[in-house]
Amino acid sequence: MRNLIIIAFLLVFSSCLRLDSFLYNPDTSIEAYGYDSYEGEVEIEVGPEYTIADSMIHPLTFQSDPSGDDKKIHAVYLGNIADIATDTIILYCHGNRDHLDFYWPRIKLLANVGGKNRYGVLAMDYRGFGLSEGPATEEGMYEDVDACMLWLKQMGLTDDRLVIYGFSLGSAPATELTANPRTLQPSKLMLESCFASDDVFVEDASGLSLPGSYFTSLQINNGDEIKKVEEPFFWIHGVDDSFIRMDTHGETVFGNYRGSYSEAHRIEGGEHGDVPTVMGYPEYLNAVYKFILR
Which of 10, 113, 134, 173 has its CA 20 to 30 A from that of 91? Predict the structure, then answer.
């Protein structure tokens, strides 16, 4: 009887209970990116040893145009742009909230993989996040990340030197564009705190097996898309993640991978956003470096 009441409630009010705003939680209040001078909240804290020289920080804008809806997307590249034509590049896709400044310490960490600026790192704000134009949409997010790939390709990057890293919401474009490549085919896929699908979110929240379509127009399903990925796969998740549960989300994605090589890092005590901190920055950077080198 209790489940019947819950189902009736959810069906009646499903138009109000949308996962779209749950998955997209951007902050557009900033007037400029602060990077190291940003005084707002950041996801993790890193020490001065991970600072990147100003000469290696390059703010960029790209035009992203899904279905004729042209928008300006803001991004930042860490490293020597001239090296894009010859070295490996990490394309970082951030999570569901705030903007680039919130993730700046994470981006700097990746710019220290294998040593300072060993690899270039490109990160962007999807449309609707930070200073990037337009409303947040699923297809727009894919197009925005692909617009970054187009710039990298124009700078000389080839498929075999592109590593894509998706955190949380960013696992969607990272998985989608590896499974169904457009401008470039990433050579390696890295996912942190990834989610399986909107259906799993609904089941976790309600305890009921209901289709996610009752609550969202999104079609994201990393659990299915990962089955198409043949490239090497690095998966890392906090065991204590209460936002995107490891057992129902992360393990589903990892278990569905059928490609050439995979490695799993289950971080005891790790929550959703603190996995590198709990793991320890040297250990985290070493794990990422070893995976990229293999």
Answer: 134
Residue 162 has phi, psi (to 5 degrees) of: -105, 120
Q: Where do the domains of the chain lie?
A: 19-293
Give the per-residue pLDDT at 19: 47
- State the Cα torsion 239-280-125-131 to the nearest 10°: 120
CB atoms within 10 A of CB 236: 25
For the domain made up of 19-293, the CATH class stated in words is alpha beta
Could you read off the pLDDT of 104-149 as tens digits, one per residue? 999 999 999 999 999 999 999 999 999 999 998 888 899 999 999 9
Please report the pLDDT score of residue 23 as a whole number: 72
Neighbours of 107 (CB within 10 A): 22
Among candidate residues 111, 91, 253, the one with its CA nearest the CA of residue 186: 91
Q: Can you give the pTM of this predicted structure? A: 0.88
